[in-house]
Amino acid sequence: MKMKRLLLIACLLPLFASAQISVNEAGGWFESAYVTFSLTNEATSYNVYYKTIGGEYKLIDDELVRNYGTYGRADVVGITAGEYMLRIVPVDATGTELIALAVETGTLTVKAHDRGGFAHHNYSGGIGAYKDDGTLKAGARVLYITAKNAKTVSCDVITSNKGTITTCVGFQTIIDAYQKGYDTTPIAFRIIGTIEDTDMDKLSSSSEGLQIKGKNAQSTLNITVEGIGNDAAIRGFGILCRNASSVELRNFAVYLCMDDCISLDTDNSHCWVHNIDFFYGNTGGDSDQAKGDGSLDVKGDSQYMTFSYNHFWDAGKCSLCGMTSESGPNYISYHHNWFDHSDSRHPRVRTMTVHVYNNYFDGVAKYGVGATTGSSVFVESNYYRNTSRPMMISLQGTDISGDGEGTFSGEDGGMIKSYGNLFAEKSSNFKYVTYQQNSVEFDAYEATTRDEQVPSTVTAKVGGGTYNNFDTNSSLMYSYTADAAADIPAILTGSYGAGRLQHGDFTWTFDNATEDSNYDVIADMKSAIINYQPSLVGFFTESDGTGEGGGEAGGDEGSGSDEGDDDSGTGSDTPVVVPTGGYECHFTGKTPSNSFYTISGNYSDSKGTATVNGVTYSECLKIESKTSISFTIGEEMTLTLVFADGTVPNIKIDGEKVSATGNNVITATVAAGTHTITKADTYNLFYINLTGASSAIKSPKVDTDNGPIYDIMGRIVSEPIPGKVYIRNGRKFIAR
Description:
Mean pLDDT: 88
CATH topology of the domain at 18-112 and 536-555: Immunoglobulin-like
Number of helices: 5
CATH class of the domain at 18-112 and 536-555: Mainly Beta
Structural class: mainly beta
CATH superfamily of the domain at 18-112 and 536-555: Immunoglobulins
Helix content: under 10%
Largest sheet: 12 strands, mixed
Low-confidence stretches: 1-17, 543-551, 553-574, 693-704
Distance between the termini: 69 Å
CATH architecture of the domain at 18-112 and 536-555: Sandwich
């Protein structure tokens, strides 16, 4: 019996033992990295860190670590290209990290986004909220947008020429405040999960949905709207950009938009739309709007645009490029897009000067590139799989071949230069006529070298338009290296390919045999889009798991992203002795204990603890972008700041970054006057004190002198408070 009991205990022991979590999947992507991991019942949340190989770990924002019920996921964004590792540390209900259960990933390769194209040409500093190296611009704001907080997320925005600061509430309302033109602070809106039209505070464009609009033509906005992870999406509305410059849209899906998925409508410049998944829009009133109207349209004198690494899923009309109101060549680039069983307009170009290179035309039903109205289009090194009409010029060549398909446009012709394109799996309906084959009824001028100029004698049959040879003019053209057309399918379907990270969480397999030539809506696919349900549960850091989120973080120069240098695991856990007396402040009850300091910010009781002179504090002030601590002193004093045990923090004092050395305490000498403490990187502050500049009153004196008593600011005090530092006859003492 004793032996059986021992065997039973031995069998049960693993059930009660601490279980190390495991990495399910991890990878690097464009200026980001991700990991999914198993969960443990011993944890209520998880801290996730990242580091370069050989560097120190940095903590990422809580909102980047999400709960998917059976697993967790974290995404690190805003990092430069290089080799990285991630570390996942479970955290228990007291805020203590369970180091023994932590796990690390292997080495992950992060690549830079491809910034080829006209949007970045002669434009320095970065488009949107990010610099060209992939990190956030100095002082950038970061807002996390969820279905639950899209109506309530808030941000302070300058709204007048007098510097008036208005607290704006709601996703659209914050963007609308930027339209006033007084605040160009870079701002990244990070979408978590799916946001429905009904989740929004309002939609300022009645036709499209979310509106990003500048005050005047080409107003600099410095706005990025980006999805986090592989499941970020908006559904039931699209996005309209107008009068906007320096706007970036990336890494989210658009489902069932109102009209266009994304419309760059009027007077925009230097906008970059990339790694978007474009799906069906709502059915429109016209016969050609069964799949919605346009997926990605650019018009109204918009210029210097790049559309890259996007994935168009059975789109009807992919991209209208230009109307008739454009005043100039309006340079536009389309590169590395995956036109996946879409129908037409890849793009359909009026008036504009356009470079179409390294795109994957995958079973395109109607036609690829169409040129009208005097446009010049360079179509280079694209891969066409079973695309019967890869290029057409209106009212000539294949466009009037008499095959019963009719013309794609009744407008004057444009001009196409073609080079290095590959045509695979050509059907019996394939038609492509070069100028060299027929100098009147042609679809494109086929260049023998990339740098060959199209002669001025090559003209459109209707309208007489010529090619402007922009691509061989070094003063107009950007530097780039085109991939070989044969490599494009593998590139765009690979792990660093088109669409969202990991190609998104929505999967569908097209049947090439039936869908390559099908113009109609795929009913089952549309039903799947309508019935799609996100699997996101919420953030681990929220007690109800509902995913409220939406806090504001900051992006500081050189920090990589808003993720700060929180617990790197190198700090000492030995309690630190700090000066006693003075202006002490802690946050018990999530309220400052000393009104001497003016403090704004958020508090928490789940960010660990700090032990100060034998007293352990468990409630802290979160050091975030909106956190501010200010005070005024009448003499030079020593400032002491105590952060979570085990961390090696930093902070900004009057705008200058100050770092701790070897433990969780920062000390600094501050002169007489007013001082402000703000975020350098994200940490958690548990205790503040100001004492005499000597940093120690080692033998506190009993007040036996005569004469008036002054506080540290030089004010006469009638009743000193025990334990505080005062001055009498030029000597400091602690009141008893």
